[in-house]
Amino acid sequence: MCHLIIEISKVFSSPVEYCLTYEVVADQTLWAVCGSNADHIAMDEVSKKASISLDVMPLINGHLPIPLVKISKYFPPSKGFRGHRNQARSEVFSPGEVYNKSKASQVHVIVPSANNEL
Questions:
Q1: Residue 116 lies in a domain
Q2: How many domains does the chain divide into?
């Protein structure tokens, strides 16, 4: 078991405030994501950062690609025109709006054999 730490930083201000939705997409033959693999987060307005820690477990040895994290804008339900409730919605970012510094990164997983003494 190991920790997958997702760090999100907001670089530019936006005229529209929104939360974020993240989703961890992992190859199920390589990784087991323990717990929820998706959630909504609110950015800290002072530091403009958010950090999420998830438990993941590699299922095989070798050089494994780090699970992909998809981020989208999340607009919670709100009161609309004439008191009607608008439904929650997600909206993908435009190309170039999100930079994934760990995209295509790999981790080398070595599981000790059962006959090795510690």
A1: no
A2: 1
Beta bridge partners of 17: none
- In which domain, by residue range, is 44 found? 2-109
CATH number of residue 67's parent domain: 2.60.40
- Virtual torsion, Cα 40, 16, 96, 49, nearest 10 deg: -50
| This prediction's pTM | 0.77
Domain assignment of residue 118, yes or no:
no
d(CA 74, CA 54): 20
Please indicate, yes or no, if residue 117 is contained in any of the structural domains: no
Distance CA 94, CA 90 (A): 13
**CB-based contacts of 107, cutoff 8 Å, min separation 6:** 58, 63, 64, 66
Q: Determine the pLDDT at residue 54.
A: 93
Q: What is the pLDDT of residues 26-48, one digit of tens each?
A: 999 999 999 899 999 887 677 78
**Per-residue pLDDT tens digits for 1-30:** 899 999 988 887 766 667 899 999 999 999
